[in-house]
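agent: user wants the full assembly modeled, not chains individually. Plan: 1) parse entity lines 2) check alphabet per entity 3) run joint structure prediction 4) return tokens. Steps 1-2 passed, two entities, 1022 residues total. Proceeding.
--- entities ---
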Amino acid sequence: MISIAAHKHDASANTLRLRRLGIDFGDEFAIFMRRDCHICRAEGFSARTRVEVTYSGRSLLATLVRVTSDLLADEEASLSAPARPHLGPSAGALVSVAHADPVESLSHVRAKIYGRSLDKSSVHEIIADIAAGRYSEVALSAFITAVAERALNQDEVFYLTEAMVSVGSRLDWGQGPIADKHSVGGLPGNRTTPIVVPIIAACGVRIPKTSSRAITSPAGTADTMEVLAPVDLSVADMRRVVEAEGGCIVWGGAVDLSPADDVLVRVERQLDLDSEGQLVASVLSKKIAAGSTHIVIDLPVGPTAKIRSAAMAKHLADVLELVAERAGLTLRVVESDGRQPVGRGVGPALEARDVLAVLQNDPQAPLSLRQRALSLAGPLLELVGIVGRGEGLARAEEVLRSGQAWKKFQAICASQGGMRAPPIADIRHAIVAQRRGVVANIDNRLLARIAKLAGAPSAKAAGIDVHVELGDRIEKSQPLYTIHAETRGELAYALEFLARQGDIFAVEEGP
Amino acid sequence: MISIAAHKHDASANTLRLRRLGIDFGDEFAIFMRRDCHICRAEGFSARTRVEVTYSGRSLLATLVRVTSDLLADEEASLSAPARPHLGPSAGALVSVAHADPVESLSHVRAKIYGRSLDKSSVHEIIADIAAGRYSEVALSAFITAVAERALNQDEVFYLTEAMVSVGSRLDWGQGPIADKHSVGGLPGNRTTPIVVPIIAACGVRIPKTSSRAITSPAGTADTMEVLAPVDLSVADMRRVVEAEGGCIVWGGAVDLSPADDVLVRVERQLDLDSEGQLVASVLSKKIAAGSTHIVIDLPVGPTAKIRSAAMAKHLADVLELVAERAGLTLRVVESDGRQPVGRGVGPALEARDVLAVLQNDPQAPLSLRQRALSLAGPLLELVGIVGRGEGLARAEEVLRSGQAWKKFQAICASQGGMRAPPIADIRHAIVAQRRGVVANIDNRLLARIAKLAGAPSAKAAGIDVHVELGDRIEKSQPLYTIHAETRGELAYALEFLARQGDIFAVEEGP
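--- prediction returned ---
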């Protein structure tokens, strides 16, 4: 028999007192501890060890960052900001730190890497661990890589969708259809949501829309909408707006609809990896969590859009429709032209200006934005059964033309906290054509990059105003687009980049 | 025409003064900057952005860690320790920081993830970027995942081997065969190198052996050898020892033989992913870089060893032999019994004790270690042509039995800086059998874990002394193994883990 009582290790000795250190480690959970503290020495922790941090019965996994100077005292530790709300301690609280047990669901990730399919429970275990912050960045990257492109079969995509919904909160709007729309990203200025929502709501259909802020683009729908009205609404305020007006356009970040997806998208972006299965699960899980039942998905197709070919669009549409059906959603996919920006403005205020022009039936309003919004609102009205098949577009057009949509939009803005006018940038710099000819190609990605360098989205008025479209005949020295910036320094960044990159608009000799 | 001269951005404004902050961020290159410093604001850097840091014409990519407190002053930044030697600035130097261009070779990694094969130039570009520290942890993880298990074809493994050699330094020993050996890891106590090297060197064959320290095991060969003699030799000192004695056993870490491999192995370990192609390229690139020409590879096979089945061993041996041949190496693979520890000791000093017993022909010396060392030395003598096929084992045995190997070992130790005696731990705790029967199974992984919790390898005397072997008949209360520790706390850790895990030796009723 082995008697270990005499050696029993005293777990309470493994505590450190928390204090703020003021280091922003990004989204990863991290704990800072002195390299020579009693726990690091006793446990033999090395740099970037994954450790289990426990406070008052709750625990989380964190990456260890060792401090080798006097930034921390001997009995002190510091938690990274994202870890604090998960654990709940206040400054000065005592936390205990120990070796972390291996994350069991990583064995499922390894199995997938070795070519096996994932069953339902494996997918749910993986997503639960990811949502709980138990995956390191390295482990997240391995999962993203293992499911990249078309590595997931339809079952796996469905399980992933379910699992993502199950780890977040879910909105319930009671009986009746709940409309929603989503555009698969990558197209500058594609700001149809603030037009589609009031059209649908004006027809008496509920459309409680949550949108995202920009992560790598010059503006997300929430950034653009924020120029016109507050978007940081609580779930309770969102309900109040929807009950009053039938629709809203709020920032989804406050609502915690798909926390695992937020984590995965962050790492996916770093890798710039396309993953069809992950994309489908991401889109559909957010819609299900938002309580939506009838959804139109916009797939812009073009060489510099996210969806680069008709074949890609077709395959993606099939998977979206099949998984949506299995999840009990009514969904229609609309393919659209993704070869050039939509509307004229790129950046929060410039896009908001275009949105207002369309809603107000301004004769100068960009036709491309108007048409695209109608091409999504129409099928959505058909999908929820408000009009018959083939009658949606006419109804949407009527609601827009008559001013009902504009009236509804103003009411939504008022209900969200009050409408406001978009700002205009003080600093503007026109880029002109160097030759006459026809606009043959527009690089959406470079255009977005320049708008960002000019300050968008954090500088609301910054961005690009595009003056020409594909196929336009232009003269030498005719302005192609104008860069808007709030500071001279930001304009300089954008111009410097432009000087290195060369032309964003290809002008060819016309017929 | 666009005139940008007036807006030309002044790059010299993008400088910060370096100072030490004392945060150990692990092996990743990182730069700490104030979130509100002029560069972060102007460039729009967010947490964990990859940035380019330039000093005096040299530059590197680093991960941005933002400081939100007064740990740094406004114009200050701090580089992580591993980044400093790559860039070369002293404290107080001015570095400039800018957005990093995308790492181009990541497009090859994406191509591999999407199922395409890598050509020679793609592999070389990837490895060059990895060696230069241009891959983030997330990017490294994606690469490791993309090449996991058997995802690389033979061409790709060969290119990877070549590329890994090309980015590090390479030793040149002039004409004639250079012998080497390697054991594919995972077996506690498998410390054959300090026995094989003096046997080979005593036969007049040069064997300049570089070994590793433990990373996840209770002892690496360099840790064990360090108990007996200094191993931190410079390349010049290593040459002097080899010229004098024909062989050496030094730590490879000081020699920078395969820097890209060191990076990949670190991430691979975090994922616990097996990658056959990566393993082959790792082993062979280090041998080529060390200047070796004739190599014996030991593949221990057993359920708790790295190679779990004969089929895995066969496949791995085939790839090793084919790629070695293409690289111009003479190589033989020896499969061995990986079901139980080799020798008796696990941990630096206990293993060193076993090594000495074998070299000194002590009648109590563990037979398993002696036999295994001979089974590698024999084929190696045949491979270099010192003896005919089938005659190697007898010659190796003769050199060992006659004391020539022991004499050579002492000479090598003296030449490396002086021989010393292994320490013995003060604290020892025997674990006894709870029933009589036959030892049916030994879990190598748990055994290694306990030796580490007891303090190995940093506590040199710590580890496990194993008293029984598979198949031994034992009585109830007979000691199975003894845990050695340098402190009571470490013994307590080991016993606590043991109490949770249950038995490491399975004892079954015998016939």
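agent: reporting back. The first helix of chain B runs from residue 38 to 43. The longest strand of chain B covers residues 58-67.
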